[in-house]
Amino acid sequence: TLLCPCRLPPHQWLCEVIIDTDNLLISMLEQVQLLCLCRLLGLSRRSMTTPLFTETGVMPIRARRVILALRYLIYLINLPRNHYASLALHENHNMRASGIPCWLSDLDWVIQHLPGCSLSLPPLPNISEELILVLIKSITSETNLRLQTEIDYSNRLALLQHRLEPQKTGPNKLITRTLRHYLTHVYKSHHRLSLTRLLCGDMVPITFHSSPARTHSLNLGESHSKWCRACLSPLQPESPQHVLLQCTAIAAITTLRNEFLVDVAVLIPLPMTRTFTNVESLYYLRAFIFNWSTVRRVARFIHEVVVIWKAVTHQDLDGSYDESSNENN
Fold first, then answer.
1. Residue 129: helix, strand or coil by DSSP?
2. What is the CB neighbour count within 10 angstroms for residue 129?
3. Cβ proximity of 152 and 176 under 8 Å
C-alpha cells in the first residue's frame, strides 16, 4: 500500500470477506509483510519489528485485515433488507446466536484475538455504522498503544522514546505511526540508511556494543564487551551517542564532530564547551535528528562516523554484518 496506493495489494484481495481464523496462514502473511518492510527500510531480517510500523505508518496486517472486514460490515448493514447479502447477514446473526460457526462469529473471534486487544463485536441488532466506526478507531488506538509501549520498554529503541515528530508547519507532535520525516527529507540513500538503522536499533550490538539507553557509567563488574573499544575505558559504554558526540580517541571522528557542531550551532543552541555528558549526548542526538532543519546534516554526519568506526573496529564497510546476534542490549 505504501508503494502502490492506486492498486489493490494482493494481501487485501477478498480479505473483507474471508476472515483470518487460521493463525498459521495469517502468520505467513505477517512474515511477508515484515520482510517487505525490512527491505524497504534497508534493515536486517532480524531487526526489531516494532519500528517497521512506527517508522512507515503501515498498519500491522492482522489488524488491517480486520478493519477492512469491519468496513465491509458497514456496507452490509446499509443494504436493503431484501438484498441477498443482507438476508445472509441476518442468517449469520441467527447462526451466531445458536453457537454455529459463521462469518460474524469468525469476525468476532479475530477481533478478540488481536494482540493486546480487549474488544469484541456486539450482536447484530446492536450494530450501527457509528458503532463500527468507533470499533475501528478503538482497534487502531489499541494497536498504536501496543507499538508505543514496545518502544518505551526497549533499550535498543531509546532514540525513539519521547519522540515528537517534526511538522512542516506548527509544533512537533507525538505520533506513534506515520511515514517519518527523515525517510522523505534525507535524499541521499546511504545517509538515510545509516540514520534508519541507528534509530531502529539495527546497529546494536554489532556496530555499537551498548544500546542508547545506557546513559550511566558502567560498573567495574559489568561485561567488558560493553566498554568503548576506542576509549578502552572500563566505565564508558560504547553507545551510539558516545561514539558520535563524546569519544575523542579517534581523531577523524573528532574532526567530523567539531565541523558538524559548528554547522548546527546556528540552528540549535549548544553548550559553550561543546562537550556532553552521557545524558546530554542522548538529548542532543535526538534534538539533531528530530529537527526538520538539521536532519540531513546529522544523517550525513552519522553515516561518515559509522564508516570510520567500522573501519577502525574491522567491520565490513558495505553495511553488512552477522545477523545471528541481535539481542536486546
1. helix
2. 12
3. no
Report how far residue 79's alpha carbon sits from residue 73's, in angstroms, rounded to the nearest whole number.
Answer: 10
Angle between helices 23-41 and 61-77 (to 10 degrees): 120
Residue pointed to by grid coordinates 539481542? 327
Which residue, chain included where needed, has cell 573501519? 311
CA 111 vs CA 73, 84, 118, 127, 147: distances in Å? 13, 25, 8, 15, 17
pLDDT tens string 40-81: 999 998 899 999 999 999 999 999 999 999 999 999 999 999
As a whole number of angstroms, the distance between CA 221 and CA 291 comes to: 38
The DSSP output letter for 227 is B
Is the pLDDT at 85 greater than 60, yes or no? yes
pLDDT at residue 220, as a whole number: 65
Cell of 99: 453457537
Residue 63: phi and psi, rounded to 5, are -70, -35
Contacts of 138 (CB under 8 A, 6+ apart): 119
CA–CA gap between residue 234 and residue 218 (Å, rounded): 7
Cβ pair 66, 111 in contact under 8 A:
yes
CA dist 106 and 116 (Å) reads: 18
pLDDT at 303 over 70: yes
Q: With CA atoms as reference, report the closest residue to 317 among 296, 328, 298, 303.
A: 303
Residues in the chain, how many? 329
